[in-house]
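User: Good morning. I'm curious how adenosine monophosphate would be positioned relative to this chain. Could you predict the structure with it bound?
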Amino acid sequence: MPFAMYDTASREVKTIGAGKKHITIYCCGPTVYRDAHVGNLRTFLLSDLIQRTIKLTGVSVALVQNITDVGHMAEDASDKILNQAKRENRDPFELARQYEAKFHKDLNLLNIEPAQLYPRASETIELMQTMISQLIENKNAYIGSDSTVYFSAQSFQSYGAISGNKLDSLQPGHRYEFIDEGGKRFHADWALWKNAGSRTEMIWDSPWGPGFPGWHIECSAMSLHYLDNHIDLHVGGIDLRFPHHENERAQSNSITNTESVSHWVHGEHLLFEGRKMSKSSENVLLLSDIIEKGIDPLALRLVFLENRYRSQMDLTWDSLYSANTTLKRWRKKLQEWGTSQISKSDDEFVSALMNDLDTPRAIQRLRLIEKDPSITNEMKRAIFVFSDQIFALDLIQEEIVREMPLHIEKLLKEREMARAEKNWSRSDVLRDELEKEGLLVRDTGNGQEWDFI
Ligand code: AMP
Ligand code: ZN
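Assistant: Good morning! Here's the predicted structure, ligand included:
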């Protein structure tokens, strides 16, 4: 059965890399000026699930994910990394490296398999400059009156094919691009190389004067260079469909003179407790916030799997606690079901994945298998072991059984009593003491629960 996914450009579910034995994937990576929030992680998990599912079909994968450490502009046309570096009074590169390391740590906690390569924008400037020179030579780009190099949107006939935003429907003055550059000839053109102007940090020499690259050219340059001029599957969050991917397609196709990306896959956005995640509304959830509550980071992976990637999803604390409980139950069941490492494929599980990555249906299948009295424990375990190749929930991780030291047990009892007496200040003091002892306590409807840190 072939692996098919919805392609945003053709608006249909298509087989991925039909007949190919090797598939190239490019996933737009993080802008490393802050911690990735759980919404970003949902999108990064999508490329992991795709990669694992392709490998399951016996096809090899090359996955490249860029690190944007320069060129991604904020709404006020300033560079996101430079802004944050100023706020923290730090060197912008040092800041970017710190958040990049944090990004890898988060991926690891979510069992997201690493990409083959994570090229950094700041280290691939030459690639971008070569591409820009070529685009100028081909008359797809020009040097504007402000010495910034722009891509000429009208030079690319099929602009708008991914998002449906054709040039004649884009009104002048409409803020579809954050920066309203002064030196461009047509309102829908965008900057490939920005003139440094008064900017002194994170700038490079170029044939067009000192400056820095635009965000869209980064992805064209890195994807074509590292994946040999053709990308079988391109992944990103739905917000990148326009203008980022539309512009990337125009740039890349103008260089290769062919359709450089075969399949555009977009993950829908994540909301948290019913609202968009944004700093201004103080509604940003990080993986560390989840871990702090004593929830296994893989419970987040499970909640994501319970929702289809193409549907907008609302993450709640309730769903995280409930997934955490399921995770613990499954790990315990797998221990009860034996010790064999044998893995057994399940047709319905596989067919759910092959059908546009229907992970909720695959989870449903596992829940049925768990409860089915006609399936032997050995078989149940083997199917769950098989599923973990894709789901990566560490189901056969042996539970670490730790003895509770007596003095900690005493503190827990004392806290339980303090709570019964509604002595909240004492109960808070005891919680801090327990945390120092390596125990994370949280209060639930059924009293206090705890996990070893
Ligand atoms: P950024 O670091 O802002 O460049 O975003 C990295 C990735 O996360 C991109 O693919 C975005 O489309 C994606 N993304 C941003 N916000 C969300 C969200 N709330 N839910 C899912 N994906 C998101
Ligand atoms: Zn990109």
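The chain has 14 helices and 15 strands. The chain has a mean pLDDT of 93.
Let me know if you'd like a different ligand tried.
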